[in-house]
Amino acid sequence: MTNQISRDELRSAIADKLCAHFGVTAETATDEQVFQAAAIVIREILSRLHTFDSRTAPEREVH
Question: Does pTM top 0.90 for this prediction?
Answer without folding.
Answer: no
